[in-house]
Amino acid sequence: MDFEWKDKTDLGNFYKDLLQNNFFRFWNEAVDRQNGGVFNCYNNAGTELVSKNKYTWSQGRFVWIWSRLYSLSRSGTLSLDLNALQADLEKAVGFLEKKVFMPNGNCVFLTDEKGNWIESIQGKGYDTSFYADCFVALGFSEYARVFKDRHYADLAFRVYRQTTDRIHRKGLRSEPYPIPEGYKFHSVPMIMLNVSEELALTLGLLDDERHEEVERESCDYMREVMEDFYNEAEGRIVEVVGPGPASRNEVLCRHVNPGHAIEDMWFVMSLAKRKKRPDYIGRAATAVKSAIEAGWDTEFGGLFRFTDATGGQPKGAKTGDPYETLILDTWDSKLWWPHSEMLYTTLLSYALTKDREFASLYNMAHEYVFNTFPDKENDTGEWVQIRDRIGNPIEKVVALPVKDPYHIMRNIILIIELLEQIWL
After folding, report:
1. How far apart are CA 281 and CA 266, in angstroms?
2. Closest CA to 237 of 180, 194, 292, 319
3. Does residue 424 or residue 381 have the better pLDDT?
4. Which listed residue, 99, 103, 144, 378, has the most CB atoms within 10 A of its CB?
5. How far is CA 238 from the centre of its chain?
């Protein structure tokens, strides 16, 4: 599809139609209206539900998406059924509140459709990933913001504080990709930046004095990303910091995750804009360009899943870590979520910097995305989310065996909001 975004109305209507008549159509049919939440263990094409098990992080993400859809429909931007959305949300937050919390306050990683706990790794316990807790906090926070619900704001804060405590203790669990001892992963301050900023905004809206401490912590996470994981000389985000100089030439420390870098830079830009930090906006914009330059496949188009810091196939010394194996085995696949992040982040970068290069990068992404990911064989409304280098669909597990409603719908929502609120 060759799309020219002549003005914000054309582009906004394009995305509104896509959201309501494609993605919402698919996911509205996947809602579990008996137990609460959403079924999303589909095959890659979305034509077969292969399991009714529920991964907690996907359920938290669903609450965030449905809450924001409610907000946009209430304002008149979208035209979805408010009563139906609210009923789905009440069931979903009730499911999370009643079913996923362990006595220690952590969230269970996996349940069956009714909320009975399942060990995702036999014998390893139930609370195997702090990421699940992060997405529960995000879901509760967004629900509380939209409905001005202090109860769920309190729950979001409780989960958030429990999570910050876990991060500062030894042995942080982060399945499906454990962090090796002595290494620091960019993904930790990245997700905490997103969670803390959104929670701070919710608490501020509710005149809750806790918003000040959460906002301070959000700024700390932004500084950590942009000071500890930003390579000034190369203008790029480093995914893994190793325990010493020798580790710098390892695959783990050399590799680039273009999607992560692009996504986190809009987290940074969002907070930096509010805190009047043009220096961070500028560095983030540079990092976006760097990630796209390293990650873009100049032969077939699209973003590689992983690359070396210099571009191309990841290389370096091997440690035998499972995440390293993932990097080397799947580096040239084309996944849906980095591309949806690129669509939004390039538009936001253009809006904030007025740099015309970002308009060109957006157009490049738009052309590739809408020629590649929509399902041309099945009228599901969803994308075929995982493809090989040349664009053929492949049936693989990316992180969890799910088809996740989060990245695409979130970025479409954010694009619609950006076009309504900020224009160039």
Report:
1. 9
2. 292
3. 381
4. 144
5. 18
